[in-house]
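Hi V.,

Quick status before I head out on leave. The structure for the redesign project is tokenized and pasted below; the design run finished overnight.
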């Protein structure tokens, strides 16, 4: 009887360990997938902000010089805050619906959403040491 109980406990332990390992691997894959800014379109916008607790959307255009200056800052912050803040890039030339809805008048503009609600709008290019605290205060 005791031997059967020990075998059953071992089986349960192995199953639980396998379950925990799958969970850890899944989280690592998810984190690595979100360690760079994701492309956001008009079609994916609502779903993106609803499925992540904190989203920073970089509204930009390829011809915009200041946008190009901010891009590396956004990329580094996406890597550093992977799993905690989702960074997205929305090309305003190709996605006019969202740009119009949020009245984007100048770029770069960073829209910060917490629980799918717009909580901040940051306009203009700025260095990381100024931009980072404006976003991370919503963590």
């Amino acid at each position: 009887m005791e031997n059967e109980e020990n075998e059953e406990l071992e089986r349960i332990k192995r199953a639980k360990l396998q379950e925990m390992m799958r969970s850890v691997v899944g989280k690592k894959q998810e984190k690595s997938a979100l360690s760079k800014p994701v492309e956001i379109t008009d079609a994916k916008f609502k779903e993106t902000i609803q499925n992540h607790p904190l989203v920073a959307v970089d509204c930009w255009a390829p011809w915009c010089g200041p946008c190009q200056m901010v891009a590396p800052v956004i990329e580094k912050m996406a890597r550093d805050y992977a799993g905690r803040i989702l960074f997205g890039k929305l090309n305003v030339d190709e996605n006019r619906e969202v740009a119009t809805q949020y009245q984007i008048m100048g770029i770069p503009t960073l829209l910060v959403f917490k629980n799918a609600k717009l909580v901040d709008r940051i306009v203009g290019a700025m260095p990381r040491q100024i931009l980072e605290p404006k976003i991370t205060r919503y963590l």
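Above is the designed sequence. The domain at 34-136 is CATH 3.40.30.10 (Glutaredoxin).

G. will cover questions while I'm gone.

Best,
W.
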